[in-house]
Amino acid sequence: MPLIQVALAGATGNLGIPILEALLGAGFGVTALSRIGGHSSRLRPHPNLTIREVDFNSVRSMTPSLLGAQVVISCLATLAIGKQDPLIDAAVHAGVKRFIPAEFGMDSRNPLCVQLPVCVPKVATQRYLLEKSNANPGFTYTSIANGLFLDWCLKEGIILNLAQHTATLYNGGDVPFSATIQADIAKAVVGIIEHQAETANRIVYIHSALVTQNRLIQYAKDKDGREWDTVVKDTEEVRQESLAELAKGPEGDIDAAMLGFSICGCLDTDYGCDFSRHLDNELLGVKELSEAELRALVERLL
């Protein structure tokens, strides 16, 4: 059986690394696209890995590196998400069959999510992909909604600060929300490649667990017995603060604003943060964490 060829843009990022490992582990041939002068030297050699430095703003620069690839995966950084169009155009020119955009987050079909500035470019990218698919019937796309990155957010103190035993409890801390460890997102990417007919031109939904902040805190308390310093905050307040930060223009903290919008989309029931009624886990080979596994994850990061 011929080796499936996959191109991965943004292979050295937080999500790109586990996706690259999963692709190589599944036996795919991978071309890692890296920005010219970027961090491609960080990638470990592998017999099925080819590294190409490209200009992500140039269709002409990227197209030759995509020739022969059946699938292109974009893991471009958040602030670059609005610039996926050249990569999409290059994929179409190269005859790529499936494009997985840099989405990996909230439910971009939810009417409130689509109004969040962090989601606006993702929706525009989906619209552009659909236009390209309609004009080029052999070209399709799949977007992934996975909620927050569970393990990464715990390490970074975003859902909770496990090191300091502090937390901002959004909407009280008892909101059930879907969250996914990075290894499971990588599994879903492999699952899409293996189930292209069932995943064409749609969003797939996955999670490793449906959790609440207070449940995760309880796991930590059960382990070390320490009390937590918490404050309660409404996600609407977070949204307003993030809009105010954006309004500052170049002087504003854009990363903080985008994180705030992501918190709104992933920790507020009105924004569809619970994916449990429409999961694609089984199709894509993503197994939900048991309570013991979820507890162990929290304990490991304490």
List the main descriptive attributes of the protein structure presented here.
alpha/beta; 302 residues; seven-stranded parallel sheet; 11 helices; 18% strand; globular; three-stranded mixed sheet
What's the short story on this structure?
The chain is of the alpha/beta class and about 300 residues long. The protein is built from 11 helices and 12 strands.
Question: Fraction of residues in helices?
Answer: 25-40%
Number of helices: 11
Our Rg estimate from Cα atoms comes to 19 Å
Low-confidence stretches: none
| Structural class by secondary-structure content | alpha/beta
Percent of residues in β-strands: 15-25%
The biggest beta sheet reads: 7 strands, parallel
Spatial arrangement of strands, main beta sheet:
3-2-1-4-5-6-10
Identify the overall geometry: globular
Number-wise, the strands total 12
Helix and strand pattern = EHEEHEHEHEEHEEHEEHEHHHH
- Note the gap between the termini: 45 Å
Average pLDDT value?
A: 95
Structure notes:
With 302 residues, the chain is of the alpha/beta class. The protein contains eleven helices and twelve strands. The protein has helices spanning 16-25, 59-66, 85-93, 120-135, 150-155, 182-194, 213-224, 235-246, 254-266, 281-284, 291-301, and strands spanning 5-9, 29-35, 49-54, 71-74, 98-100, 140-145, 148-149, 166-170, 177-180, 202-205, 209-211, 229-233. It has a seven-stranded parallel beta sheet, sandwiched between helices. A three-stranded mixed beta sheet has the order 7-9-11. Helix 1 (16-25) packs across helix 6. The relative contact order is 0.14.
